[in-house]
Amino acid sequence: MKNNIILLTSEHLGSGEEELGRSLLENYFTLLKQEDDKPAAIFTINKGVYTLTDRHFASLHLKEMEENGVPILGCKTCIDYYQLSNELVVGEVSSMKAFIDLSKEYSVITL
């Protein structure tokens, strides 16, 4: 995973029932944070930025990953669009340019 970045595009994993998808995403990050080999970064866009707030349980797992050295980044345009800048509990506000630069250096896994 260390040669990859995760692009998180939604607040749930997969399509179908959103409640199930939110649970699946939380489970994904629960398991990922336990791995020795962690991604180089996690970049959130669109509704994925909600995972950076306390509205989503995944924020707890992302916070642990951040504390263990994984950069957690949120698209500024998306954070502004959803008016979440005052609700962020994890990660840092970043730019699409930063994502482009990361994607030149690492493979991208899109969730």
From TrEMBL:
It comes from the Bacteria. Pfam families: DsrE (PF02635). This is Intracellular sulfur oxidation DsrE/DsrF family protein. It comes from Texcoconibacillus texcoconensis. The lineage of its organism: Bacteria, Bacillati, Bacillota, Bacilli, Bacillales.
